[in-house]
């Protein structure tokens, strides 16, 4: 079965959500603070809400974007 997968695209200010993949894992939410590629493709610099840590994220299949204003 061929399934076309749309590439993830984001912009600064979007919210990124990483769902827990194992029982007991928690959802992690952050704000995208930098997008190095003009087309909005990953990786992204993200500031995490839970600890304000900022790091580089290469999103996996358990990740989705909530578009900012």
TrEMBL record:
InterPro entries on file: DUF1918 (IPR015035)
DUF1918 domain residues: 8-65
Protein's UniProt name: DUF1918 domain-containing protein
Organism name: Catellatospora chokoriensis
